[in-house]
Amino acid sequence: MATTMRPVLCPHCGAQVRKNGYCSECYLPLSMLKKAQNTSNYYYNIGYDRASARDLSGAIESLLQALRYNKRNVPARNLLGLIYYEMGEAVQAMSEWVMSINYQQENNLATKYLKELKKDPARLESVDQLARKFNMAIQYAHSEDYDLAILQLKSALSDNPHFVKGYLLLALLYIGTDNYEKARVTLRRVLKIDKANSLAVHYLREMGDTEENIIEMRKQNVDNDGLLDDDYLEEIVVTEDGRAPKKIEKKNLFQEIKAKKDTSVVRTGQFGQVSLAKYSGLYMLLGLVFGVLLFSFFILPGQKKKLRVENEQLIKTYSEELAGKNSTINSLSAEVDSLTKQIDTLQNGAPQGEADLPDYSNVVSGMSDTDLQNMIDKE
C-alpha cells in the first residue's frame, strides 16, 4: 500500500509549498525560507546563552533578531516573554505568549504560563498597579516633583523588585538631585538583574565609575542595601529617669511633602490618581469652540468658493445651451415663413406650367380648311 507524503508547509505563512519550491500564498522560495529559519534558530541559541548568563538586555536583542527572520519561532517567543516577565514587564510578556499560542496551540509552554497568571488575580492587579504608579512617577518627573516621583517609584518597586525600568528612572532622578550614592545603589540592583544593561553602565560611567567598579558591583549583595526602606523622620529623647530612649514621633516623608505642596495625591499616604473629571466640561467647551473656529476660518471659505465656481460653470453651460436652442428656433421659424409663402402662392395663383405658356387664342389663322387638307395630302 502506497503511503501519501505530507504536504510541505511554508515556515513563513503556513501555506502549502508547491512542487516548484515556491509558497502558494507568499510566493517565497522554500530554500530562502529554510535559510531564514536556520538563521532564526542561530539567534535563538545566542539569546538563550545570554539569558543563561544574566545578560537579559542582550538576550532580548538576539531574540528579537530571531523573530525578524522567523516570526513563528515559538521557543524564541516564549523565552522572550520569560525575560520580559523577569524584568518586571508582565504586559509585554503576556503579549508574546498570546502570539506564541496563536502560532502553535498544542504542546506550547506559553499556555502554562498564562494559566498560572490567570490563577492569581492578585498578581494581575499588582501588574496594573505597577503600570499606574510608574506612569504617575513619570508625570511627577516631568513636572519636576522629584520627591513625589521617587516615592511613587519606591512603592512600585516594593511591589515588583525586578522592575528594571523603574530602577533606571529612580537612578536618573537620584542623579538629577545630586544623590549619587543612592543612584549607585539603585544601579547595582539593575546589574544584579541584567548584568549588561547598557543604560545602567552608561549612568555609572557618567558618574565617574571605572570598569573595575562596575564589575565589582555585579558581585555585591543587594538584599540589605536599604534602597526600598520607608523614609521617615524620628526624634529620639531620653526619659526623665535616664533609663531608656523612647521614640516619640515617626512621620512619613510623603505626608510632609504633601503638606508643603498642593497636589492631587490622596492625603492618607497612599498613592491615588489625579482626577480630571471636573475639567471635562471645560475641555469639551474649548474643543467645541475650537471646532467652530476651525470650520468658520478654514473649511467654510473653501466650501463657499467651491460652490461659487460650480454655480458659475452651471450658468455658463445653461447659457450656451439656451443660445444654441434660440438659434435653432430662429432658423426653423425662417423656414416655416418661407414654406408659408410658397403655400400662399400656390393656392392663390395659376399653375406654374400654364403661366409660362404663350396665349394664342387671339391669333387669326390665314389658311382655310381646304388648304390645310391639300397640304396634308401632298405630304
Verbal overview:
- The chain is mainly alpha-helical and 379 residues long.
- It has 15 helices and 2 strands.
- Among the domains are: 30-119, Serine Threonine Protein Phosphatase 5, Tetratricopeptide repeat (Alpha Horseshoe), CATH 1.25.40.10; 125-219, Alpha Horseshoe (Serine Threonine Protein Phosphatase 5, Tetratricopeptide repeat), CATH 1.25.40.10.
- Helix content is 65%, strand content 4%.
- Strands 1-2 form a two-stranded antiparallel ribbon.
- Strand 1 and strand 2 form a beta hairpin.
- Helix 4 packs across helix 5, helix 6 (121-142) packs antiparallel against helix 7 (146-159) and helix 8 (164-176) packs antiparallel against helix 9 (180-193).
- The protein is elongated, with a radius of gyration of 50 Å.
Mean pLDDT: 77
Q: Structural class, please?
A: mainly alpha
CATH first level of the domain at 125-219: Mainly Alpha
Number of helices: 15
Instruction: List the strand order in the largest sheet.
Output: 1-2
Count of DSSP E strands?
2
CATH architecture of the domain at 125-219: Alpha Horseshoe
Share of residues in helices: 55-70%
Which stretches are low in confidence, meaning pLDDT under 50 for 5 or more residues running? 231-276
How much is the radius of gyration in Å? 50 Å
Strand content: under 5%
**Euclidean distance between termini CA atoms:** 127 Å
Main β-sheet: number of strands, strand sense, barrel status? Answer: 2 strands, antiparallel
